[in-house]
Design goal:
Elements: H1 10-15, E1 18-19, E2 26-27, H2 32-41, H3 53-74, H4 83-89, E3 95-98, E4 104-107, H5 110-125, E5 133-135, E6 144-146, H6 159-174
Antiparallel strand pairs: 1-2, 3-4, 5-6
Length: 176
């Protein structure tokens, strides 16, 4: 599983587990095991939770709802139905505790992970912060990100991947 965390928001990084949404979708979370591994890769939990098929489908449903809402925010549209998001955001989040050794421990199940993602999305989608949402400028990338740049002119989700590819292609075209 080749995941990156470049969106500037946990909920958008979760949405980013599907790539190339307008062409040939790239599914980074192919099943429950991938989702469990993502929770630790994202730093949400210290140990991967148990994820069954039903829980995996709930997570996918939330992810697609977050994508819909983020696109509405990006386009300045009303959100419409937000009950699914608010339902998850209202649940107990991941428990974070500081140990005597100074190490932070993160515990909880998949429901707690989805609640934490939901809360992150609520914070992101609250206006006026939602106006900083952008979609990557690379032709096939559909990754959404928060543009925290000083001028609000960031063009790519990640300079190392998409930005570099676009610039290299432009260079080759100029010198062909």
């Amino acid at each position: 599983m080749d995941v990156t965390f470049v969106s500037g928001n946990l909920a958008l990084d979760f949405v980013g587990t599907v790539g190339s949404r307008r062409t040939e979708r790239v599914q980074l979370l192919a099943g429950p095991d991938d989702l469990a591994a993502w929770t630790t890769a994202a730093g949400l939990l210290d140990e991967a939770p148990a994820v069954d098929d039903r829980a995996f489908q709930q997570a996918v449903e939330l992810r697609e709802e977050l994508y819909r809402l983020a696109c509405a925010a990006r386009d300045g549209e009303d959100y419409g139905d937000v009950a699914l998001l608010n339902g998850w955001a209202a649940k107990p989040p991941v428990v974070v505790a500081l140990g005597a050794d100074g190490v932070v421990r993160r515990t909880g199940g998949l429901d707690a992970v989805l609640a934490t993602i939901g809360r992150s999305a609520v914070d992101l989608l609250a206006r006026p912060l939602a106006s900083e949402l952008r979609e990557c400028g690379a032709e096939t990338c559909t990754r959404l990100y928060v543009d925290h740049s000083r001028r609000g002119a960031r063009r790519w989700c990640d300079m190392k991947r998409c930005g570099n590819r676009v610039k290299a292609a432009q260079f080759r075209a100029r010198h062909a």
